[in-house]
UniProtKB/TrEMBL annotation, chain A:
Keyword Transmembrane: yes
Keywords, ordered alphabetically: Membrane, Transmembrane, Transmembrane helix
Membrane-spanning segments: 21-45, 57-75
Name of the molecule in the record: Uncharacterized protein
Automatic annotation (TrEMBL), chain B:
Protein name: Na(+)/H(+) antiporter subunit D
Subcellular locations according to the entry: Cell membrane; Membrane
Organism: Sneathiella sedimenti
Coiled coil: none
Stretches that traverse the bilayer: 6-25, 30-50, 70-89, 96-112, 118-135, 147-166, 172-193, 213-234, 240-258, 336-356, 368-385, 414-435, 447-470, 504-524, 544-565
Pfam families: Proton_antipo_M (PF00361)
């Protein structure tokens, strides 16, 4: 369980590489957002939809982003009400 | 093999051999039994066996149809996987009860009537609690007790429902029941307890994280999926299940965000996944039931994989609290890879199990025009991405380096994780193989451009949200804590109510006892005052005095009555 002093440096130990991961996520998001732009211009990709609102530009992307942020923020508020000490029941 | 033997019995009878074996023979026995059970399922094929008349009831010990077969199949695979994972364990009790537990879960799936179902149903409850108690801690003992009370109650309610149902219909065959009255309502509640319906769910989050490293992996696969199977058989198309399932997909994800114990996070996540299956049963169309069965199959694989990876971390580091872990990718890289495979599968990335199974339920909701539940499920999918897709691997293997340096997980654990990972990816890449096992004709095609793109959009933008929240330090930190859930009601107020009721009964009892004592004392005192030594009624007097009194009385009587009788009696 001890950490040797001469341990090799890992790629993620470098703070600027964490930035690189962040930018990689941004690029991936930009890539998966492209089909909706194509669909808007009516080239290559056509949405097959079940509900009308799926036609909203980048519906799934926005829904994912908003839900996620909403979930975390609400949970954070709930923590004020629900959180107790670790040995609360003991 | 015996013709028509319920495959569950192979594990149950096999368990009886466990105490007489050890070492390599024990290991071979543990790994062979699930394989034999699986072979039994497929050599028997479809049909019914073992019909008996018992006290006027038609018992049907074995019934294999496509719905039972897919659950039985995945149970055997999960048993095999769990046994590999537990090979290093040298605890006879755990091996024995695990086999009884798995055997009774498989037995229940293949039960053709409700009495057989009930027997196996209770057996799963009683055997499984030993996997929790095997931790041998005070916490585990108490959690196990609560678990046992709730599980056995489920069985008692089921029995009540079965008796009423038999009175109404004269049949105990386990087929479609549908919610029609009290009898079916009780049966639904019994199934609902084990499926972890909202407010009936806390036994799972309470007890599963307290079980042993291997026990949790085994527990997570069977009880709840058995309940989903029974719902799918008895209550398909029951409308009330749709909102219930919807609530199940949503509320646990908030707790999963806050929870610090990562095995408890996975228990909340399990609850959320069951929600999709309950919605599928509630919709009840062929596509939805197919979706439920497929999702149960895929879910057992990725959920076991996640529990196994967290179990390996607990086994090596001695803790499973997110606040104490981090940076483990340096010392447990293979476990990390398996954990991430489980995480992307549960999140439903293309080419994984979750992608090809969950989508069927989502699609069935869309076919039925159910906008609200469709949006709820989509919200929950973003939530799954958070707690299981990102939180579990991120805070264990990345985040801040906890400076914990340990060995990689034991080989048997890695092998079991590899087995599950193989299925997670295999189902995603070749969904046709899973679809062939489904109860109805598979009509769904998961790999359309639209489905792949919309899934990736949802999941990548959810990931982006996480990245942003972390970067700007908005994401709530992992804290050592207990988060209040519904179990608070029976662990605090109900407990106090019980204690105070007990105290009140004691006070009333003492009061009644006091009054009774007083009465007895006063009787004794009065008696002592009159009949006691030297008291008036106990005084000894001379016999001459007594004779004088008697003569005086006699004299009085004689004179009085003589005078009285002289008078003529007026008529």
């Amino acid at each position: 369980m001890s950490k040797p002093d001469d341990e090799k440096k890992y790629w993620l130990d470098e703070p600027k590489n964490i930035d690189k991961v962040f930018y990689a996520v941004l690029i991936l998001c930009a890539l998966v957002a492209v089909p909706d732009i194509l669909s808007l211009l009516n080239i290559l990709y056509h949405k097959h939809i079940e509900f009308e609102f799926e036609n909203i530009f980048e519906f799934y992307s926005l829904y994912g982003l908003v839900c996620y942020v909403g979930l975390v923020l609400i949970a954070k508020k709930l923590r004020n009400v629900l959180m107790r000490d670790e040995d609360y029941y003991d | 093999m015996i013709e028509g033997l319920n495959p569950g019995f192979i594990l149950i009878f096999g368990a009886l051999l466990v105490p007489f074996t050890n070492g390599i023979i024990r290991s071979i026995l543990l790994l062979t039994l699930p394989v034999l059970a699986l072979a039994q399922i497929y050599t028997l094929g479809l049909g019914t066996w073992g019909q008996y008349e018992f006290l006027g009831l038609s018992i049907e010990l074995t019934r294999i149809d496509p719905l039972a077969r897919i659950f039985g199949t995945v149970f055997c695979l999960a048993a095999f996987m769990g046994m590999i994972y537990a090979l290093h364990v040298k605890d006879t009790v755990q091996h024995f009860v695990a086999l009884i537990y798995i055997g009774s879960a498989i037995g229940a799936v293949f039960a053709g009537d409700m009495v057989t179902l009930f027997v196996f149903w209770e057996l799963t409850a009683i055997s499984s609690v030993f996997l929790i108690w095997a931790s041998r801690t005070e916490r585990a003992y108490k959690a196990g007790m609560r678990y046992l009370i709730i599980q056995v109650s489920s069985g008692v309610i089921l029995l009540g429902g079965i008796i009423l149902y038999y009175q109404e219909t004269g049949s105990i065959a386990f087929n479609y029941i549908g919610l029609t009255g009290l009898a079916s309502g009780l049966i639904l509640v019994a199934f609902g307890i084990k499926s972890a319906f909202p407010f009936l769910h806390n036994w799972m989050q309470d007890a599963y994280p307290e079980a042993t490293v291997t026990g949790t992996v085994i527990l997570s696969a069977f009880t709840t999926k058995l309940a989903i199977y029974t719902l799918a058989r008895a209550f398909p198309g029951t409308d009330i299940l749709i909102p219930i399932g919807g609530a199940m997909t949503v509320f646990p994800i908030f707790f999963a965000v806050l929870e610090n114990d990562l095995r408890r996070v996975l228990a909340y996540s399990l609850n959320n996944q069951l929600g999709y299956m309950v919605i599928g049963v509630g919709i009840g169309t062929e596509l939805a039931i197919n979706g439920t069965a497929a999702h149960a199959f895929a879910h057992i694989m990725y959920k076991s994989l996640l529990f196994m990876s967290m179990g390996a971390v607990l086994f090596r580091t001695g803790t499973i609290k997110a606040s104490e872990l981090g940076g483990l990718y340096k010392s447990m890289p293979i476990t990390m890879i398996f954990c991430i495979i489980g995480a992307v599968s549960i999140a439903g990335f293309p080419l994984t199990g979750g992608f090809v199974s969950k989508a069927m339920i989502q699609s069935a909701a869309a076919d039925g025009g159910m906008v609200v539940i469709w949006l709820v499920m989509l919200f929950a999918s973003a939530g799954v991405m958070d707690h299981s897709g990102i939180k579990v691997p991120f805070f264990t293997f990345f985040a801040h380096d906890s400076d914990i340096r340990v060995k990689e997980a034991p080989k048997n654990m890695l092998f079991a994780m590899g087995f599950a990972a193989f299925f997670c990816i295999g189902i995603g890449v070749f969904p046709g193989l899973l679809y062939e096992l489904l109860p109805y004709e598979p009509t769904y095609h998961p790999y359309t451009a639209g489905h792949v793109i919309t899934s990736l959009q949802l999941l990548f933008f959810a990931t982006l949200a996480f990245a942003l929240l972390m970067r700007y330090k908005i994401y709530p930190p992992e804290l050592r804590s207990t988060n209040l859930d519904f179990d608070w009601f029976y662990r605090v107020p109900l407990k106090w109510l019980a204690l105070y009721t007990g105290r009140l009964i004691l006070i009333v009892w003492n009061w009644i006892l006091g009054i009774a004592n007083n009465i007895v004392y006063s009787v004794i005192n009065t008696t002592a005052n009159t009949h006691g030594n030297g008291k008036i009624l106990a005084r000894t007097t001379a016999s001459s005095t007594a004779v004088m009194i008697i003569v005086a009385v006699l004299g009085f009587v004689v004179v009085f009555f003589y005078r009285f009788l002289q008078q003529p009696v007026p008529m």
